[in-house]
Amino acid sequence: MKALPEILGRDEFDALIIRTDYGDEAAWQAVVADLAQPWGDDGEFEPSVHLVDNPAWADLTSDEVLNEARRDENLSVVFLADRVTMQSAHRALLALDITEEEELDPVYYQELIDSRLPREFRTVPAGVHDVHANLSIANVDFAEFAEAAFADPDRIYRSF
Questions:
Q1: Helix (H, G, I), strand (E, B) or coil at 115
Q2: Is the dihedral of CA 60, 10, 53, 18 positive or negative?
Q3: How far apart are alpha carbons 91 and 126 in whole angstroms?
């Protein structure tokens, strides 16, 4: 794997958004504009995001991004602006669960292994703030957000 620049300057309350697709600048600018909108029931909260917009991250896989993002111990989720994001009408980002999966012995834990919780889902940019804030304070767990996303006809988290 290529050496990646360190993620610097992220406040612990900022949602981390990493751009991995560089094929459509206009789509990226639309994602950035959506992420900059106030959020909450009445738009009462200002957005707080840290954007990583560096071609060194281009075309990385989810696992490669997770390996780097896990260095930040104050992070519970990372969002990717990937090719699907850029081509989607909803500009849905990929939310990745940062927590590392525990290695389980299949002799004793096959049922748990077979029923592992989802490790990713898609969310509209407006949902990024809700997901990040609630996961940061452990108010909601990742699986609950994934379940809400999977219940949507487009399989995208929009809000509870």
A1: coil
A2: positive
A3: 10
Between residues 100 and 20, the one the model is more confident about? 20
Q: Containing H/E element for 137?
A: none
pTM of the entire predicted model: 0.87
pLDDT tens per residue, range 63-109 = 999 988 888 888 889 999 999 999 999 999 999 998 766 565 666 55
Q: Pick from 80, 85, 159, 153: which is nearest to 119 by CA?
A: 80
DSSP per-residue codes, 29-89:
HHHHHHHTS-BSTTS-B---EEEE--GGGTT--HHHHHHHHTT-TT-SEEEEE-HHHHH-T
Measure the CA–CA gap between 64 and 82, rounded to whole angstroms: 13
DSSP 8-class letter at 154: T
- Looking at residue 156, its pLDDT comes to 96
Residues in the chain: 160
Buried b (16+ CB within 10 A) or exposed e, 109-142: eeeeeeeeeebebbbbbbbbbbbbbbbbeeeeeb
Name the residue with tokens 């094929």: 23
What angle, 0 to 180 degrees and rounded to 10, lies between the N-to-C axes of helices 125-136 and 25-35? 50
Read off the pLDDT of residues 39-48 as tens digits, 9 standing for 90 and up.
888 888 899 9
